[in-house]
């Protein structure tokens, strides 16, 4: 029986391994992590991540052929295939700080594999890593393993998106396997991993290629996806200036089959643990390889995203008589997108910081994010969020006087001067906005960073409404549009 061990029980390791176990009853899968609390949560009724459909998948195979354990070393030693799905955050110090990927967790996992291995292994890069990381890992493994076992390194980047992870894993657009197809050992390793996925993924969707192409394809895919969002967000600023409607423009553009309709929703800015991190990593790789023009091209995607968040804050402050000092502002949604409780790099953090900087009183509601998480995020230094939680410095009392957390969107808006929608949760489309309006200070402002509400209906109720990329409310029209510097 094939034994798989995955190092890292996070948003990727947990769901991907659960899907492998679910689809391959004859494979034993163990997911290990240095965080005992995370492992305990995977073994409990309340999983550590919120992901639609995941509970059922985990429940159907946990304790049968899917196990979660903090006994990292013995399970790694005992396995044939080791997936490494640990954090690869942006470096905060030293060479490449603010851009390069921090491979500390990766390297320590690799050294541990080398130390404990008593048999040959296939080591699979699941984490998103800089191009040529496979070679570095290979060197660590071959130079540190006393038994001189054979290690085959494969790159198998993950393309799931949070909120749709189960569907993405069950029916992926493609599975990518990079390996050394020019050696016999490499070919065997590729075939072994391919055989795992082939249990449920059509053969023509399993792509095999060389290691560097696979590693780069992952960075390229995220860069291109994020670029679409920055492109449509850049258009949203122009739409506001011209009286056009970004949803109509995106619809018209997306009808071109060469462009396609997906990933063209204008927003307050993309968030999530990967888009910014992976583009910065790409920028760093370009700079290190003497390609400053290419680096600058991709840097723009992140710069437009920062501009979009700053522009939103500017709209809020300038609309409300140029000050939000002491005013209660309801924040509807804190997660970086709907159907997840993940807040890493969420646009809400930057928008809240902007409003807190202008001395607003925030009242935040999100159906899946805990108060503790919101307070930690608002207190944390940039880039610190993507480290295992027990290693992140926290100051849970920061900003506490200016931040309150509400149990629903109605409570958040009570007595507020403005509502800002920052996550596109479905429930925000169905709220009783007449009731919300009646409970607010007047004039009542509504800033929709996700284009979820019916602008005309809210204006009829009496709200002054701003919706990203939509024709402007007469109240807002003549106010400055450029972000405050
Ligand atoms: N979150 C996402 O949707 C996606 C993430 N990725 C990539 O996958 C990788 C993992 O991302 P997430 O799962 O989101 O991170 P995560 O932070 O949710 O999980 C990583 C886990 O690895 C554990 N860990 C770190 N070092 C360890 C070690 N030496 N031994 C054992 N456990 C260790 C941490 O405690 C943590 O629980 C990253 O490289 C990310 O870029 C790729 C595709 C999608
Ligand atoms: O490497 C990763 O981590 C993953 O990053 C993204 O997945 P994810 O970040 O989970 O979620 P997305 O659906 O891509 O959304 C990212 C951000 O862009 C925003 N977005 C998305 C689409 C859109 O049209 N407009 C828009 O503003 C979302 O609200 C969210 O803040 C990619 O979609 C995955 O393929 C990839 O595996």
Automatic annotation (TrEMBL):
Q: Cite the Gene3D superfamilies for this sequence.
A: Cytochrome c1, transmembrane anchor, C-terminal (1.20.5.100), NAD(P)-binding Rossmann-like Domain (3.40.50.720)
Q: What does this protein do?
A: Involved in the biosynthesis of UDP-glucuronic acid (UDP-GlcA), providing nucleotide sugars for cell-wall polymers.
- Supply the alphabetized keyword list: NAD, Oxidoreductase
Q: Which GO terms describe its biological process?
A: glycosaminoglycan biosynthetic process; UDP-glucuronate biosynthetic process
Q: What is catalyzed by this enzyme?
A: UDP-alpha-D-glucose + 2 NAD(+) + H2O = UDP-alpha-D-glucuronate + 2 NADH + 3 H(+)
Write down what this protein is called.
Answer: UDP-glucose 6-dehydrogenase
**An example molecular function term from Gene Ontology annotations:** NAD binding
Q: Which PANTHER family match?
A: UDP-GLUCOSE 6-DEHYDROGENASE (PTHR11374:SF3), UDP-GLUCOSE DEHYDROGENASE/UDP-MANNAC DEHYDROGENASE (PTHR11374)
Listed GO CC annotations: nucleus
NCBIfam families noted in UniProt: NDP-sugDHase
Q: Which family does it belong to?
A: Belongs to the UDP-glucose/GDP-mannose dehydrogenase family.
Q: What does the record give as EC number?
A: 1.1.1.22
Q: Its domain of life?
A: Eukaryota
List, for all copies, the residue spans of the domain called UDP-glucose/GDP-mannose dehydrogenase C-terminal: 330-455
Its pathway, per UniProt, is: Nucleotide-sugar biosynthesis; UDP-alpha-D-glucuronate biosynthesis; UDP-alpha-D-glucuronate from UDP-alpha-D-glucose: step 1/1
Q: Which residues does the annotation say bind NAD(+)? A: 8-13, 33, 38, 86-90, 127-128, 162, 274-277, 344
Q: Which residues form the active site?
A: 274
